[in-house]
Structures are given as C-alpha cells and as structure tokens.
Amino acid sequence: MNSNERSQAQLLSYMNEVLNVCVMLKEYTQYNQNIFIGNDDKEILKVINKRESYIDKLVSLEYKIDTIFEEVDEYEYGDVLPHDSELIFSNIRNILKTVMDLDMKAMENIGFKMQKYKDETLKARNKKHLSAYVKTNLVSHSVSNYDFKK
User: Fold this and answer.
1) DSSP states of 58-123 as a string?
2) What are the pLDDT digits (tens) for 32-67?
3) pTM of the full predicted structure?
4) Fewest CB within a 10 Å sphere: which of 26, 30, 74, 117?
C-alpha cells in the first residue's frame, strides 16, 4: 500500500466519522428542539453545553483531515480524495444545513424569550415605586452654580 492509498484510506475513515458525528449532532438537535421553547434556562444551557462536545469532535476531525492534506503533494491532492468523497461531502453539507436551520429556530425562540424579559423589565422599571431606585442618565445629578437668570 503506497502513501496515497494510506492517506486515502485514512481520509475515508475520518470523513465517515465526520458524517457519523454530524448525524448524531442532527439527531440530538432535533430531539432537544422543544427545550428552547420552554422556560427552563438551566436545561437550555445543558443542551447547549452537550452540543459543544459534538462541535469539538468535528473540529478535531477537521484538523486531522487538514493534516493529511498538508502532507500530500499538491499534484497528488486529487488522487488522495476517496472516490465517494463528493457524496460524503454533500451528505455532510445537507446534514449541517438541517442543523443550522434548527439552530435558527432555536435562536428565534430564545430571541422572543429575551424580548419578553426585556419588556417585563421595562414594565417593572416604569412602575412608580420601583423607578425611584433606578438611576437614569437622562437627568444630571451634578449641581451647577451657574445663574440662569443672567
């Protein structure tokens, strides 16, 4: 087995592993999508932190793949790519697009939640008995000795 064949076999192995991690990330994201609609902030953070392990794994695999490409002569670059590489890349892109779409929905839900918190905070601030404790920059608290009648 020459070096190109070894590199090709290793690349194929890494690419299939990337595909598997992408599938796990997609399934995890789909399964936990409803968490972002709820009001349990701790559960949301738990889901986000768990997703980080999938992302870290993908970054690690990307580094390994890049290392193989760096070791290959630029003229042999095409020879190192596995025969099914375009199909695998296409599947990875499609899966990650689905994950991104789900992430956008989750971000939208969190955005609505943040707007609700902001509205409630403003409503509480505007209540007379609470507004006395809130400092604003609209009124200067410095005292001036300037006589405005002059």
Assistant:
1) HHHHHHHHHHHHHHS-GGGHHHHS-TTHHHHHHHHHHHHHHHHHHHHHHHHHHHHHHHHHHHHHHH
2) 998 888 878 888 889 999 999 999 999 999 999 988
3) 0.72
4) 74
